[in-house]
Amino acid sequence: MEVSVKSKILTIISTIMIFIPWTILPLRTFDWALESPAAEIIISCYAAFMIFSGIFTIISYASAKVQNNLMKGCLVVNSLYAVFGVAVFGLMLLQR
């Protein structure tokens, strides 16, 4: 059974999206990244990306029917990222 090119591309994108949120760790080693308002902007952007990656993976898995084993792992991880991103936005709103 041949896997379609569309399926491969969606799987690759979802897999790459797993690793991008971890780039915040080296970024936060800079002093300017720890000061307000840069810190809030960086965290908001990463949280928005995590929510987007979760939604993208869910849509790819459900609507596009990309249901291979790697995509199942991406679905779990990116869904957890999306929940965490929503929680971060909620905590940021509670602090104001």
How would you portray this structure in words?
This protein is mainly alpha-helical and 96 residues long. The chain contains four helices and no strands. It has helices at 5-19, 24-27, 38-62, 69-95.
- The geometry reads as elongated
State the end-to-end CA separation. 54 Å
Class of secondary structure makeup: mainly alpha
Low-confidence stretches at least 5 residues in length (pLDDT < 50)? none
Count of discrete alpha- or pi-helical segments spanning 4 or more residues: 4
Largest sheet: none
Task: Indicate the percent of residues in helices.
Answer: over 70%
Average pLDDT: 93
Number of strands: 0
Please provide the ordered H/E string of secondary-structure elements. Answer: HHHH
- Radius of gyration based on Cα positions: 16 Å
Q: What percentage of the residues does DSSP assign to strands (E)?
A: under 5%
Q: Secondary-structure blueprint of this entry?
A:
Elements: H1 5-19, H2 24-27, H3 38-62, H4 69-95
Helix pairs in contact: 1-3, 1-4, 3-4
Keywords:
96 residues, 4 helices, mainly alpha
A few lines on this structure:
With 96 residues, the chain is an all-alpha fold. Helix content is 74%, strand content 0%.
